[in-house]
Amino acid sequence: MNESQYEMILYWDKTDKIFVVDVPELQGCTAHGNTKKEAIENAENAVQFWIETAREDGLKIPEPKGRLIFA
């Protein structure tokens, strides 16, 4: 499994004036930053932390599906 294969959704939060990244395949996995680059780097770290924590807790880690399709 490659942690960088999880889909990340990047958006601008007008209220807080930061970039936010959601990783929808990993419940509750989000990150933010003052720049797009910083937000993505923080999200990559958050994915690694999410996976490490799930392993320690004996939880199932979803396989990356790539692009998600919403109807």
UniProtKB/TrEMBL annotation:
Domain HicB-like antitoxin of toxin-antitoxin system: 14-65
Listed name of the protein: HicB-like antitoxin of toxin-antitoxin system domain-containing protein
Gene3D superfamilies the UniProt entry points to: 3.30.160.250
Endpoints of the signal sequence: none
InterPro entries: HicB-like (IPR031807), TA_system_antitoxin (IPR051404), TTHA1013/TTHA0281-like (IPR035069)
Protein species of origin: Candidatus Scalindua japonica
Alphabetical list of PANTHER family matching this protein: ANTITOXIN HICB, UPF0150 PROTEIN SSL0259
